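WARN  no MSA supplied for this record, continuing single-sequence
INFO  ligand: adenosine-5'-triphosphate
INFO  echoing inputs
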Amino acid sequence: MENDPILSSLLGEVKGAIIHGYADVKVKNIILDSRKVLPGSLFVALRGTQVDGHQFINTATELGATAILCEELPESVREDITYIQVDGSAAAMGLVAAAFYGHPSKKVKLVGVTGTNGKTSVATFLFQLFRALGYRSGLLSTVQNQIEDEVIPSTHTTPDAVALNALLAQMAASNCSHVFMEVSSHSVTQHRITGLHFAGGIFTNITHDHLDFHKTFDNYIKAKKGFFDALPKSAFALVNIDDRRGTVMVQNTKARIETYSLQTLASFKGKIISDTLAGMHMDINNQEVWFRVIGRFNAYNLLAVYGAAVLLGEKEEAVLTELSNLKSPPGRFEQFHSADHIVGIVDYAHTPDALENVLETITHLRQGNEQVVTVVGCGGNRDAEKRPKMAEIACRYSNRVILTSDNPRFEDPMDILDQMRKGVPPLDYKKTTVIEDRHEAILKAGIEAEPGDIILIAGKGHENYQDVKGVKHHFDDKEVLMEVFAKRAGN
Ligand SMILES: CC(=O)N[C@H]1[C@@H](OP(=O)(O)OP(=O)(O)OC[C@H]2O[C@@H](n3ccc(=O)[nH]c3=O)[C@H](O)[C@@H]2O)O[C@H](CO)[C@@H](O)[C@@H]1O[C@H](C)C(=O)N[C@@H](C)C(=O)N[C@H](CCC(=O)O)C(=O)O
Ligand SMILES: Nc1ncnc2c1ncn2[C@@H]1O[C@H](COP(=O)(O)OP(=O)(O)OP(=O)(O)O)[C@@H](O)[C@H]1O
Ligand SMILES: N[C@H](CCC[C@H](N)C(=O)O)C(=O)O
Ligand SMILES: [Mg+2]
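INFO  complex generated
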């Protein structure tokens, strides 16, 4: 194609690249999976967690790749192929992908949100807020990607560098002025965000998760900090200073540091005046506001959103007015009420901290002798250390606990449940049941509940599938909850 960029024009920011072959070859697309290579592709060989992409270089050239971005040359080098040798192909890919799509992150105001919990909530609130303020906006999140009203399904919390820049380019082409995205720790370590230009970064919190991938908590902290280290001087770095790691996150950033807090002096200081199932009343920088979303964790999320909006130049009053109308994103403390007054809450809490926050919120909302029943499981092929912790937390705050399956992936659900069960204190054995089948577990919780009781279904939130051995079967916590509510109503 006429418009395909030439390879050398994409390498401007890649330091120390050694080019073997013709540098002016045209690049049709950038591909990181050899099975998807097309004639004219630039194939990037990445060292993955399962395999080393370098072993697929020859397959890629056989399928028509004309250029290869790699760390090591293959044993047999072809004369008609251009090899770009770099120290790190993942980081180089980020820079090349940004250049290939014309640096779309520079055409919008891009704000990234990182932290163990609250990324989807904060990014989605910001997206909703800026749309309400009249800006064309884009969203990249775990639940879905969105360009104004157009929904594009998401595969990851943060897509790979090529998909990410392609989406940003689509957003810029559709005249979005603002884009809000989640920055997962995986995406920092794997350089999915390298080459992006951020107008701001937000840190929500850091607690136990993903030790399967990062191995130590220190590495996990370093990954998140890497996002702030790379922010430019022109950006803001907005951090929750009530989190012990808030200060460390921005220790080496060039960005302008701003803070938010519910406990101490900060650029954006909040106080909860009251918090009920009907709404939350807060004081933010000496202005009183009512919100529809509830829970202390959401007070933090709202402060982050308010702070970011003000730092992006919006007027405080207008921001607070629009914020008070926002609703929680799907599967985040989503409440349902049965005809006979049972409250069902579907929440994506899949870490010990999130589960504790949600259950603490429920505890505060309790008014009398209603029972709290928690249905929860843990995902397979993910951090196993959180399993007993989540079971213990569920027991600590609930009258009854049903441990069940989440996404078992390639693990045996009963093995996961055995590990969860190890966290149940002996005194709580009696109130804890294990029901592997999630459908059955939710039905049991719903049928046995009495009017006034609160059922928390935690771990899967918005997800509409259950991943068993790589196959996604339709499953939706909300649907099952509606089924049980209908049964209770005699339908
Ligand atoms: C652990 C992890 O992050 N894995 C991601 C990673 O895959 P990987 O390192 O395992 O890849 P691999 O299978 O070893 O293959 C290495 C390379 O060889 C290539 N390959 C492989 C086979 C082949 O025949 N040909 C070929 O070219 C692969 O395309 C890849 O580039 O790179 C892939 C391509 O970008 C991602 O799709 C994949 O995400 C997997 C599906 C995943 O589940 N990731 C989760 C853990 C994740 O990223 N989660 C975070 C959110 C976490 C949070 O909640 O905070 C996210 O941002 O979504
Ligand atoms: N600021 C917060 N602090 C602690 N817990 C929170 C916070 N915000 C939300 N939560 C809890 O964490 C769950 C996940 O929230 P959210 O989806 O916003 O986080 P996330 O960081 O995007 O998660 P993921 O890493 O899976 O993408 C919520 O359902 C809620 O239980
Ligand atoms: N982004 C998180 C989602 C976890 C959701 C939970 N339902 C599970 O499957 O473990 C992860 O990939 O670890
Ligand atoms: Mg998320």
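Residues 157, 350, 379, 382, 406-407, 459-460, 463 surround 2,6-diaminopimelic acid (ligand 3) (CB under 6 Å).
INFO  checksum written, moving to next record
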